[in-house]
Automatic annotation (TrEMBL):
Reaction catalysis annotation: GMP + diphosphate = guanine + 5-phospho-alpha-D-ribose 1-diphosphate; IMP + diphosphate = hypoxanthine + 5-phospho-alpha-D-ribose 1-diphosphate
Name this protein carries in UniProt: Hypoxanthine phosphoribosyltransferase
Taxonomy, superkingdom: Bacteria
GO process terms (BP): GMP salvage; guanine salvage; hypoxanthine metabolic process; IMP salvage; purine ribonucleoside salvage
Native species: Thermonema lapsum
Keywords: Cytoplasm, Glycosyltransferase, Magnesium, Metal-binding, Nucleotide-binding, Purine salvage, Transferase
Subcellular localization(s) per the UniProt record: Cytoplasm
Organismal lineage: Bacteria, Pseudomonadati, Bacteroidota, Cytophagia, Cytophagales
PANTHER family in the record: HYPOXANTHINE PHOSPHORIBOSYLTRANSFERASE, HYPOXANTHINE-GUANINE PHOSPHORIBOSYLTRANSFERASE
């Protein structure tokens, strides 16, 4: 674990180490297991950022858990564009299923708000949201988050699936942009 990293022309400092992240993922998985006991669950992973979080959650959940993917884009560089562009639709039938939308980070709430509207049209039995990171200071759209790993300040974060211009996704730790 490095205390500081450089991606392109920006410097980031350690924010959350891998052990802290994994402990939180296990904790969230235990709560999800209790809440969905006896119910088949579909984890719907929002690509690309949530792939690590979704994979680790799935690892700690029941073997009957199904995983599917959807891809949207709302960031350009280090700023949210305010627009959500769907790049890959979910290919699994969600009708009548318990769906847990898995996000890496919720900041403005725009992406989750957009996805929830689209997914409710698929008539799931239930639809909830799990996010590793939540920035309450940045929230612009009212959204209901059911499982939140960490509430964080309104700073740009990389690592554990999150990127800066496609770099940093494979880092095991989370780093915050240095001021």
């Amino acid at each position: 674990m490095k205390k500081e990293i450089q991606l392109h022309n920006r410097y980031f400092e350690l924010f959350l180490d891998a052990t802290t992240i994994q402990d939180k993922v296990k904790e969230l998985a235990e709560q999800i297991k209790k809440d969905y006991a006896g119910k088949p669950l579909v984890l719907l992973c929002v690509l690309s950022g949530a792939f690590r979080f979704a994979a680790d959650l799935a690892r700690y959940l029941d073997d009957a858990t199904e995983i599917a993917f959807i891809k949207v884009q709302s960031y350009e560089g280090i700023m949210s564009s305010g627009l959500v562009r769907e790049q890959l639709a979910a290919t699994v039938n969600l009708s009548g299923k318990h769906v847990l939308l898995v996000e890496d980070i919720v900041d403005t709430g725009t992406t989750i708000h957009y996805l929830m509207g689209k997914l409710y049209q698929k008539a799931p039995a239930s639809l909830k949201v799990a996010t590793l990171l939540f920035k309450p200071e940045a929230l612009k759209q009212a959204v209901e988050l059911h499982y939140v790993g960490f509430e964080i300040p309104n700073h740009f974060v990389v690592g554990y699936g999150l990127d800066y211009e496609e770099q940093g996704r494979c880092l095991n730790d989370l780093y915050i942009l240095k001021a």
